[in-house]
Write a structure and sequence with these properties.
single chain; alpha+beta; Aminopeptidase; 5 helices; 33% helix; Bact_Acetyltransf; N-acetyltransferase domain-containing protein; GNAT_dom; Acyl_CoA_acyltransferase; transferase
């Protein structure tokens, strides 16, 4: 999978492609949001920002192999600190999981983050998704804090993990 690329995408031109991918990866989307993927999920992918940031701080990418979209990811620059990249989502087509795709995507993210002079990658992983927790920790991420569900949250307990660049 050496021919993978992260290509910038936007809502206006890529919403349908993002929805198609989300429907292929409905196993994860349903785990996260409790329902099948829909255009609201896609809108959140492109528009939902962490506290204190704007959509200008979001960097959504398609994971491309030639002309095929194998995944998508979005990072928020400057959350929680100015030199952090928060990985909001890495959604991969299930047909390509288990073949090193996640590791290759992470390498592309690290490369872009270093080029942007970021010093830390952070993300949160659902406690209900132990396979993802294992993946991120195998790749060198370490626990940063535990984020328990609250009455006003989506009901998921999460681990926040970090990786120093």
């Amino acid at each position: 999978m050496n021919d993978l690329k992260l290509e910038p995408i936007n809502k206006a031109d890529h919403a349908e492609d993002a929805l198609d991918l989300a429907q292929r990866a409905a196993d994860y989307v349903t785990l996260e949001i409790g329902r099948a993927p829909d255009m609201d999920f896609v809108n959140d992918f492109f528009m939902a920002t962490p506290p204190g940031l704007s959509t200008q701080d979001l960097h959504p990418f398609a994971v491309m192999q030639e002309r095929a979209m194998l995944g998508m990811t979005c990072v928020a620059q400057g959350y929680e600190f100015p030199h952090d990249w928060w990985i909001g989502l890495v959604l991969l087509d299930p047909a390509f999981r288990g073949r090193g795709l996640g590791r290759n995507v992470l390498q592309l993210i690290k490369h872009r983050a270093r080029k942007a002079r970021m010093s830390m990658l952070k993300l949160s992983v659902l406690e209900a998704n132990p396979r993802a927790t294992h993946f991120w920790m195998r790749e060198g991420f370490v626990p940063h804090r535990y984020a328990a569900a609250t009455p006003t949250s989506d009901g998921h307990n999460r681990w926040v993990l970090r990786y120093a660049l």
